[in-house]
Amino acid sequence: MSNYVNKRLAIDDLVPGMCLGKMIVTDDGKNFLNEGAVLTLRVIQMLHLWGLRYVDIREEAPTGALGYRMEDTEPLHMADADKKKTSSTETTVQIPAGFLAYYEAAVQVLKGTFGRARFLKDGFEITDVRQMVEECVLPLIEDPTVLDNIQMMPHPEDYLYHHSVDVGILSGCLGLWLGRPFRELEEIILGALLHDVGKALIPLKVLNKPGALTAEEMALMRFHSVRGYNFLKQNRELPRSILLCALQHHERMDGSGYPLSVTGDKIHPYAKTIAVADVFDAITSARNYGRKVTPYEAVAVLQYEMLGKLDSRTCSVLVDHLVPRFVGDFVELSNGQLGEVIFLNVSDSSRPTIRTIDGDFVDLDKCRTLKISKVLRT
User: Fold this and answer.
1) Fewest beta carbons within 10 Å, which of 105, 151, 181, 238?
2) pLDDT, tens digit only, all 378 positions of the chain
3) Which of 156, 133, 24 is nearest to 81 (CA)?
């Protein structure tokens, strides 16, 4: 019978074919890798992804040495392995410095603009925001990685400003993909950046409340679109299309939206575009209230909402640009399994086929009891 020793190795020193000497479990106690598992290149990549610095590798004891199987069989916990702490577990890709500089500059401009709106309540100078559209947002919408970059941006605080910039960028992208002329792109972006200005007039204790809102607080929040419209109307430089972006971005094609419950032909085209960007960013961002969903769940939401509520053409364009980026994602399933997206199902692109790190194949379109719970790397 062969004798073995366990040798602790740094992750960077691992090579395919090595044998794991000690079980690895996740922070919540789920079995990640069993003792004796043979390491593949994909498994080693996943260990890097989780931020592990070392693992125990089983090696055959040298001839003549007193070999043993280590008595310390306590599994290696990821939480105890110097796991990298990041603001988001959804990606390990660094945000490009150029994108970050433009994005943060846009956030600061909106922060100042909305701050003046909150305290002065009598309109504001629009020149800074227009300049920000030209210098910060327009350069980003032609970046082929813009969707990934927006998803990677953490929103630890100041959600209102980050959300407004996200919606501005996404709306500009949608306008570009829909073939809008350049002059209209500028207006769509401006309208999107200002669509939630009415929230700057809501008391902070309501706006930033971490728990569920009361009926009275919810009514106050829903009134932000009217407040924003009336606030922007004080600035005579702004065209009516921008005012309608603030007023109508929560209206729905079937009349089920608010504040006026108008139907499709009464909703301004810019507001229809912004509504799609607003919904997508809201559900895929961490907020004081509401659960952040994966891009896969977001696609399913868009595909459902385009059947009567959101503009179908705009939803289709966003889905068409999102879905091809899914192939190659490393994800965690709802049962704790980890794997890579290898195939998009024609019938439902939000439920692709996954190849797990154990080499199994999981077709989520057929296995409806499972879903993607986290995107670990894109």
Assistant:
1) 181
2) 456 788 888 887 887 778 888 888 766 666 667 788 887 766 776 777 677 778 888 877 655 444 434 444 566 655 554 443 333 333 344 678 888 889 999 999 998 888 888 877 666 678 889 999 999 999 999 888 898 888 878 766 788 999 999 999 999 999 999 999 999 999 999 999 999 999 999 988 998 888 889 999 999 999 999 999 999 998 888 999 999 999 999 999 999 999 999 999 999 999 999 999 999 999 998 665 556 789 999 999 999 999 999 999 999 999 999 999 899 889 999 999 999 999 998 888 899 999 998 889 999 999 999 999 988 877
3) 24
Domain stop point among 80, 114, 138: 80
Question: Which amino acid makes up residue 248?
Answer: Q
What are the distances in angstroms from CA 277 to CA 3, 57, 109, 150, 250?
60, 48, 20, 12, 11
What is the domain count for the chain? 3
Distance CA 249, CA 245 (A): 6
Pair 340, 238 in one domain: no
Residue with tokens 């800074």: 128
| CATH code of the domain containing 19 | 3.90.105.10
Shared domain check, 303 and 242: yes
Confidence (pTM): 0.76
How far is Cα 35 from Cα 375, in angstroms, rounded to an integer?
A: 26
Owning domain of residue 56: 4-80
Regarding whether 233 and 282 lie in a shared domain, the answer is yes
Residues 208 and 318 grouped into a single domain: yes
- The residue type at 20: L
Rounded Cα gap, residues 341 and 333, in angstroms: 11
Retrieve residue 75's tokens: 């599994």
3-state secondary structure of 205: helix
